[in-house]
Amino acid sequence: MNPVNYLYLAALLFTIGATGVLIRRNAIVVFMCVELMLNACNLAFVAFSRMHGNLDGQIIAFFTMVVAAAEVVVGLAIIVSLFRSRHSASVDDASLMKL
Amino acid sequence: MENLIALLVAAPLLGAAVLLCGGRRLDRFGHLLGTALAAASFVVGAVLFFDMLGRGAEERALHQTLFAWVPVEGFQANIAFQLDQLSMTFVLLITGVGTLIHVYSIGYMEHDERRRRFFGYLNLFLAAMLLLVLADNYLLLYFGWEGVGLASYLLIGFWQHKPSAATAAKKAFLVNRVGDIGLSIAIMLMFTTFGTFTFGPVFEQTGQAGQGTLTAIGLMLLLAACGKSAQVPLQSWLGDAMEGPTPVSALIHAATMVTAGVYLITRSGAIFDAAPDAQLAVVVVGAVTLLFGAIVGCAKDDIKKALAGSTMSQIGYMVLAAGLGPIGYVFAIMHLVTHGFFKAGLFLGAGSVMHAMNDEVDMRKYGGLRKYMPVTFVTFGLGYLAIIGFPGLSGFWSKDKIIEAAFAKGGAEGWILGAVTLLGAGITAYYMTRVMLMTFFGEKRWQPAPAADAATDVEPSADHRPGELPHPHESPTSMTLPMIVLAFGSVFAGGLFSLNSAFVHWLEPVTKFEHGHPPVGAAVITTATIVVLLIGVGIAYAQYGRKPVPVTAPRGSLLTRAARRDLLQDDFNHVVLVRGGEHLTRSLVYLDHSLVDGVVNGTAASVGGLSGRLRRLQNGFARSYALSMFGGTAVLIAATLLMRGV
Amino acid sequence: MSAAPSLAALAASTTSTGEAVQFWILGTVAVIGALSTILMRRAVHSALCLAGTMIILAVFYLANGAYFLGIVQVVVYTGAIMMLFLFVVMLVGVTAADSLKESIKGQRWLAALCALGFGALLIAGISRASLGASNGLAAANAGGNVEGLAALIFTKYVFAFEITGALLITAAVGAMVLTHRERTEKAATQRELAERRVREGKHLPPLPAPGVYARHNAVDIAGLLPDGTPSELTVSQTLRARGQVRDVSTEALNDLKALEQRSEERLGRRPAPARTARGGAEHEEENDR
C-alpha cells in the first residue's frame, strides 16, 4: 500500500468536515466539524512527514493541535455565553448580519 | 476731444442711476434732473458735432477706448467708442429728439406718481441707445442693443397695472429676443470667421470670407434688425407697444430705437455689399413691411396704432433703401432722421390730443379739434405734410430719393421696388389724410368719458369726470414747445439736408455713395410721386372728408377687417408658432416621459430588480456565506489545477 | 522505547501488509465516524463519533511513525478536547436535538454539490501530484521520536513554540472573560419572584405537578388538564426537549368513557356525544412500553 492513501483519507475527512460545517446548525456540532477538518490536516501532515523523512510535518501537526486546543477553548466559551444570552446554540439564530 | 465721447453715454447713465436708485426724495426734481442730463448729453453731442465739422471729411472719425472689457487670449473686447459721421447723426437725433421728449414728458407725465422712475427709464434708454450707436465693436453694440430692449420693455409696461400694457411689454420683449438671437449668432459667426468683432477689422476682412458665411452673417443681422425695427416677420410687437405712454411711443417706437435695425444694416454695409443674397432679403423684407405697415395703418381707428403702422411702413422704406446698397444707405439714414422729426412730432401731437380727450384713442370719437387745439393742429399738420411727402417738406426730399434709388436698382427688380415704393407713398398719403381728417376736421363725435375704471384711471390727465363730454384744450407749453421744435425739423430738415447734397457728402466717407441711375428721369419719378400722393389724399378726402365718419366702425371689407387685426399677424403667430410650439412641447413631453424617463426608470428598475435578486444572496446566514467561501475555494483549486495542467 | 526500532521499520516507505489491512479497516471506520458526526441528530452522538474517529487517527499517527503525536492525540484531543465538547453539550445542548430539516433554501444541495466537487478536485490534485518516493522516518526517528521533535521545537521552532504558549494563555484568559459573569444585581428573593409572577399575570398558581391522573407515578408522564388533555408544562424541560414525555391521557379518557357509559346504562340516560380521543396511536404504543 502506498502511504498516499493516507492523503486520500485526509482529503475525504476534510471534505466531510467542511460539509458538516455547511449543513449543521448546532454551533457545537459545527465546531466539531471544524475539529474534524483540523484533524484531517494533521493526518496529511503526518503522512507528509513520513514521506519526506523528516519531523517538520509532525511539528506542524503539533502546533495545529495546540492552536486547535486554544481555539476550542475560546470557541466553546463563546458558545456558552451565546447560549446564555440567546438560549440557543443554533448558528442561524445568532445571525445579526442581516437586518 | 475724443475724451468727450464717453460723456455722451455717461450723462444719461448717471441720470438713470441717480433717478432709479435715489428713492422718493428725488420725486420733486427728478424729472428736471433727467431732462437736464439729456440736454447735457445733447450739448456734448453738439460740441463734438461742430468740432467734427472743423476737420476734413476723412479725419472726422474719433475713437476712444475706455478699458479692456474682456481681455482674454485671442478674444479682446473693449469698451471703446467710435464717433464717425453716421454715429454723429444718430447722436444728434437721439439726444435732440430725446431731450425734446424729456421736456414734453414733464407736462405729459405731470400727474403720474411714478414720474421720477419714468425719467429714470428714459435716461436709461438714452444711455443704452447712445452706447448702441457709439460702440466700435459688435459686442458693445449688442450690449446697447439689449439695453434699449430692456428700456423698451420697462417703458411699454410702465403702466404695469394695466394687463394689456404688461402683456404688450412681455410680447415686445419676447419678439425682440428672437431678433437678439440673430444678432448674437451673427456676432459669433463673425468671431469664428474673422477672429474679431471690431467694426474696422471685420469690414476690412469681408473679402476673405466665404460667400456662404457672409450671407449667413447678413441674414442673422437682418433677423436682428427685423426684431428691433418691427419688420415682417417680427413686426407684431410694435402695434401693442403703443400701450406705453405716448412720449415713449414717440421716442422709442418711432424716432430712435426702432430705427436701430436700419443703423445695424447701414453700419454693416460692408458685409451686405459682399453678400448680395442677404441684401436681396433685406430689400424684400423692407418692401413687404412697407406695404404691410401701410395697409395696417389704413384700417386702425386707434390713432397711436395707425401711427405705429405708419412707423412700420416708413422703416420699411429705410430698410428697403439700406438693402439697395451704396445707392441707398445715405437716403435710408436721411429718411431715418427726417422720419425721426416728423414721426416724433406726430406722436407728440397724438399724445396732446389724447391728453385733451380724456385719453381717448379712438379717432372715430374725435373730430373738429382744430379749433380747440390750434398749436397741436398746426404742428401735427406740418408733420402730416412732411410724412406724405408734400413737396418741399422733409419727407418729400428723403422719400423721393428712396423711390428714385429703388428704380435705380435696375432691371425688373428696380421696376417692382419702384412700384412698391410709389404705391406705399400713395397709401401713406391715404392713411395719414384719414388720420388728419378724422381727428381735426369734420363734426364733433365726442363721447362721454367712460365710467371711472380703477384699473385705468391712474393715467396722466385725470382732470375729467366720468359721464361728461371732454373739454378739449391746448396742452401746456412744456408739451407744445417740443412739438413746435419738431415741426420746424419736419419742415426744414429735408431741404437742409438736400441743399448741395449736404447729407450725402456728410455721410459718404462712412457709408460710401453711388449715384443711382433710374431708368426714367428724376423729374418723371417726382411727378409720379406727387400724382400718387394726390390720388391717396383724394381718396381719403372722398371717404372721410365729404361724408360724416360713423362713430362705430363699419364692418368693412375682408381686407379692412384683416388689417384691423394687424393683417392676422397675431393669428398667424398663434397658429404657427404658439400651436406649433405647444404641439412640439407636448410631443417632447411625451417623448421625455416615454423614452427618456422610460430609459432612466427602466435602468433604475432593472438595477433595482437585479439588486433585489442579488440581495437574496445576502440572507444573513453565516452558513450561506461559508458555502460561498467553500465554493470559491473549490473554484480556486480547480483553477490552480487547470493552470498546472496546461 | 524498546519497541521503537520495530515500529520505525513499520514506518518505512513501502508499507507492510499488516498496515494495509489496518488502514483499510480503520480508514473505513474513520470515514463512517466522520459521516456519523455530521449526520447524527444529537450533538452528544456526534461528539462520541468524532471521538472515535480521532482515536483511529491517533492509531494512524502511530502507524506513520508519529508516536508522540499519536499519544498526544489520544490524551489531549480525545481525552481533553472532546470531553470539553461533551461537557459543553451537556451544559447547553440538551435542547440540541437538531432537526435535520434545512432552513436555508438550497443550502444542503449546494453544500453537497460543492463538497463533491471539492473532494473530487482535492483527490484529483493528490493523484496528479508527483510525490516522489517515500523516505520513511527511520533516520529521523533514529534518536527517538520524542527527542527528535524536542530538538526541533526548542531550536528551529522555538519562537513559534513561545508564541503558541502565549496564545494558549491568551485563550485561557479569553475563555474566562467570556464565560465569567459578574452578578451586577442582587439575586431575586422568593417574595420578589412571587410578586413578579402576579404582576406578569401568567401561572399565578404553582406549575402543575406531573403524574396527575397517571397510572405510573413517574416524572416523564404529563399531568392532565381539567379537560383531560396532557399539559406539557408539568414535565421537566429537559425531558420535553428530548421528546421523552409519556402520555396516558388516551387511556384515561377511554376509562372515563367506559365509566360514563356504565353509569348511563345504569341510570337509563341518553348517551352523551362521544368525545374524540386526543393523541395518536403512537402514544398508545409508547404507553405500552
TrEMBL record, chain A:
Its EC number is 7.1.1.-. Gene3D superfamilies: 1.10.287.3510. It is an enzyme of class 7 (translocase). NDH-1 is composed of 14 different subunits. Subunits NuoA, H, J, K, L, M, N constitute the membrane sector of the complex. Belongs to the complex I subunit 4L family. Keywords: Cell membrane, Membrane, NAD, Oxidoreductase, Quinone, Translocase, Transmembrane, Transmembrane helix, Transport, Ubiquinone. GO terms for molecular function: NADH dehydrogenase (quinone) (non-electrogenic) activity; quinone binding. It comes from Streptomyces mutabilis. NDH-1 shuttles electrons from NADH, via FMN and iron-sulfur (Fe-S) centers, to quinones in the respiratory chain. The immediate electron acceptor for the enzyme in this species is believed to be a menaquinone. Couples the redox reaction to proton translocation (for every two electrons transferred, four hydrogen ions are translocated across the cytoplasmic membrane), and thus conserves the redox energy in a proton gradient. It catalyses: a quinone + NADH + 5 H(+)(in) = a quinol + NAD(+) + 4 H(+)(out). This is NADH-quinone oxidoreductase subunit K. One of its GO terms (cellular component) is NADH dehydrogenase complex. The lineage of its organism: Bacteria, Bacillati, Actinomycetota, Actinomycetes, Kitasatosporales. InterPro entries: NADH_UbQ_OxRdtase_chain4L/K (IPR001133), NUOK/Mnh_C1-like (IPR039428). It is found in: Cell membrane; Membrane. The chain crosses the membrane at residues 6-23, 28-48, 60-83. GO terms for biological process: ATP synthesis coupled electron transport. Pfam families: Oxidored_q2 (PF00420). Its main location: membrane. It comes from the Bacteria. It is a multi-pass membrane protein.
UniProtKB/TrEMBL annotation, chain B:
The keyword Transmembrane helix applies. The chain crosses the membrane at residues 29-50, 87-106, 118-135, 181-203, 209-227, 248-266, 278-299, 372-394, 414-432, 484-507, 519-542, 625-643. One of its GO terms (biological process) is electron transport coupled proton transport. Residues 135-420 form the NADH:quinone oxidoreductase/Mrp antiporter transmembrane domain. Pfam families: Proton_antipo_M, Proton_antipo_N. One of its GO terms (cellular component) is endomembrane system. Residues 69-119 form the NADH-Ubiquinone oxidoreductase (complex I) chain 5 N-terminal domain. One of its GO terms (molecular function) is NADH dehydrogenase activity. Its main location: membrane. It is found in: Endomembrane system; Membrane. It is a multi-pass membrane protein. Keywords: Membrane, Transmembrane, Transmembrane helix. Residues 452-475 are annotated as: Disordered. Residues 461-474 have a biased composition (Basic and acidic residues). This is NADH-quinone oxidoreductase subunit L. The lineage of its organism: Bacteria, Bacillati, Actinomycetota, Actinomycetes, Kitasatosporales.
TrEMBL record, chain C:
Residues 257-268 have a biased composition (Basic and acidic residues). Its EC number is 7.1.1.-. It catalyses: a quinone + NADH + 5 H(+)(in) = a quinol + NAD(+) + 4 H(+)(out). Keywords: Cell membrane, Membrane, NAD, Quinone, Transmembrane, Transmembrane helix. InterPro entries: NADH_UbQ/plastoQ_OxRdtase_su6, Nuo/plastoQ_OxRdtase_6_NuoJ. It is a multi-pass membrane protein. One of its GO terms (cellular component) is plasma membrane. It is found in: Cell membrane. Residues 256-289 are annotated as: Disordered. The chain crosses the membrane at residues 20-40, 47-69, 75-97, 109-127, 157-178. It holds the Pfam family Oxidored_q3. GO terms for molecular function: NADH dehydrogenase (ubiquinone) activity; quinone binding. It comes from the Bacteria. Residues 270-279 have a biased composition (Low complexity). It is an enzyme of class 7 (translocase). The keyword Membrane applies. Gene3D superfamilies: NADH-ubiquinone/plastoquinone oxidoreductase chain 6, subunit NuoJ. Belongs to the complex I subunit 6 family. PANTHER family: NADH-QUINONE OXIDOREDUCTASE SUBUNIT J, NADH-UBIQUINONE OXIDOREDUCTASE CHAIN 6. NDH-1 shuttles electrons from NADH, via FMN and iron-sulfur (Fe-S) centers, to quinones in the respiratory chain. Couples the redox reaction to proton translocation (for every two electrons transferred, four hydrogen ions are translocated across the cytoplasmic membrane), and thus conserves the redox energy in a proton gradient. This is NADH-quinone oxidoreductase subunit J. It comes from Streptomyces solincola.
